[in-house]
Specification:
By secondary structure, this protein is mainly alpha-helical. Helices cover 64% and strands 0% of the residues. The protein has a domain of 33 residues. It comes from Propithecus coquereli.
Length: 72
């Protein structure tokens, strides 16, 4: 199924813009921000939610190294 002419013209215009070397740095920044947002939504947010439920009471009691205050 072919795309409508307006969509095809828009796609060609966007592709021409992306091929220009002049916008390479700006597009790389946009891509980095997008990848960071996706990583945050897929990995960091669920991990933070799970850790909140696991360690809700605060600091865990460590019995294997009573001298050190660092977590094991």
């Amino acid at each position: 199924m072919a795309a409508p002419p307006k969509v095809r013209a828009l796609l060609l215009a966007v592709n021409a813009l992306l091929r220009k070397r002049r916008y390479h740095a700006a597009l790389a920044m946009v891509k980095g921000f997008r990848n960071g947002a996706v990583y945050g939504a897929k990995i960091r947010a669920p991990h933070a939610l799970v850790m909140t439920f696991l360690f809700r009471s605060g600091r865990s009691a460590c019995t294997c190294c009573p001298v050190s205050c660092l977590p094991c």
